[in-house]
Amino acid sequence: MKVIVIGATGAVGKAVVAELAQRHEVVTVGARGGQHQVDFADIESVRSLLAKVGKVDAVVVAAGSLHFAPLASFTPEQFYVGLNSKLMGQVNVALVAQEYLNDGGSITLTSGIVAEQPIRNGASASMVNSAVEGFVRGAAIELPRGLRINVVSPTVLQESMDSYGPFFIGFEPIAASRAALSYARSVDGAQTGQIYRAGEHA
Amino acid sequence: MKVMVIGATGTIGSAVARELAQRHEVITVGSRSGQHQVNIEDFAQVKRLFAQSGNLDAVVVAAGALHVGPLSQLTPEHFHVGLKGKLMGQVNVAMAAQQYLNDGGSITLTSGIDTDHPIRGAVAASTANAGVQGFVRAAAIELPRGLRINAVSPTVMQESLHLFGDLFTGFEPIAASRAALAYARCVDGAQTGQVYKAW
User: Fold this and answer.
1) CA count, 13 A, side-chain hemisphere, A108
2) Of the four listed, A21, A58, A148, B114, which is most buried by Cβ atoms within 10 Å?
3) What is the radius of gyration, based on Cα positions, of chain A?
4) Which residues pair with B152 in a beta bridge?
5) Residue numbers of B between 95 and 134 with CB closer than 8 Å to A
6) Which ipTM did the prediction report?
7) Is the pTM here over 0.95, yes or no?
8) Alpha helices of chain B — where are they, by DSSP H?
9) How far is it, in rounded angstroms, from Cα A92 to Cα A139?
10) What is the pLDDT of residue B165?
11) pLDDT in tens, B136-184
12) Domain ranges of chain A
């Protein structure tokens, strides 16, 4: 299969590339690194990316900015950081990918454990990650040609504990390589409309 | 209790206002009618509304624009209708309400059954409604002074079948007066961070 991984240079994305490259041709995309660059908050940038890469069998996104701050000080503009990036960036990729995916191809997006398990300072993160999951549930029933869409909701990664550890006290971190298995299930599997919770006791 | 109902002239909002008015002083707010008018998409207007109304015990929102249309035709702008309207409109109210709510007061927002049970043409709605529920779960753990926040996720109303019935074939409609009970549980109850499924 030919698979595009957007966010391929991040902690999750790198592990997803390593996992998928064992079986598939992987095209790596980053904001600044990778084989191709994209600003996925801009749908035109996503369109030109896919026009360059051409037909694919799977698209994975593990990217998106979020603003973290105490609820009391959040402004509408700060909520829009995540809405424009992690939510609409991923929605843009899914919208454009529809016409470049071969029959039965898949789209795999990323939410996060805080969609279900809120943390302090995470009002925007919970909102945005929940919205990504809502999008995936809704899109799954309308995609044509056997196209599939799923979302992986990872917990905090061992590799990210230096930066995010203080936000996730009491959460059991997992290795990025374990989170990557959920992406592999979405890409190599046959389900659609699923939320794969990577690191939670399902 | 003094309760503000935003969207008070809509199908659900008018039923909520009737339900709550049996026990509480209700201030009705609409986009064009009601005792006060507000465009919830404009944060400055929402802040002005609360400055005028003064301290409250509960705020209910049953309002917010959504785009309905097939996935294959959706553009980012279609998604932004719901993000700006139903999602950030309600978030604007929650953010502005915090400082005007009395201790233990509550905020009740509205999502929708398509969050959990997707229907054709509603992907942009499912996105915005899921965002509302995520916001409520997270805001609940950070609100001070015993303030509470919940969401009601209603199915299609009997009163709205002539408008939305075709989208909801196979869904059992309920009377708006029944959906209003879920809002009453939020306002008069003691839970927080909940999504009450009115279906």
Assistant:
1) 33
2) B114
3) 16
4) B110, B196
5) 95, 98, 114-116, 118-134
6) 0.96
7) yes
8) 11-21, 43-53, 76-82, 88-97, 123-140, 161-164, 176-188
9) 12
10) 85
11) 999 999 999 999 999 999 999 999 999 988 999 999 999 999 999 999 9
12) 2-196
User: Which residues are within 8 A (CB) of B150 and not within 5 positions of it... i.e. 6 or more apart?
Assistant: B106, B107, B108, B109, B136, B140, B186, B191, B192, B193, B194, B195, B196
Buried residues in A100-118 as b, exposed as e (16+ CB within 10 A)? bbeeebbbbbbbbbbbbbb
Query: Looking at beta carbons, which residues of chain B come within 8 Å of A144?
Result: 72
Q: Which CATH superfamily is domain A2-196 in?
A: NAD(P)-binding Rossmann-like Domain (3.40.50.720)
Strand partners, A74: none
Give the list of residues 6+ apart from residue A197 with CB closer than 8 angstroms, or none: A113, A116, A153, A155, A182
Nearest C-alpha in A relative to B144: A72
Other C-beta atoms lying within 10 Å of the C-beta of residue B154: 24
Give B97-146 pLDDT, tens digit per residue.
Answer: 999 999 999 999 999 999 999 999 999 999 999 999 999 999 999 999 99
Is there a contact between B128 and A114 if contact means CB atoms under 8 Å apart?
no
Read off the tokens for B77. Answer: 């702008």
Q: CB atoms < 10 A from the CB of B173, how many?
A: 17
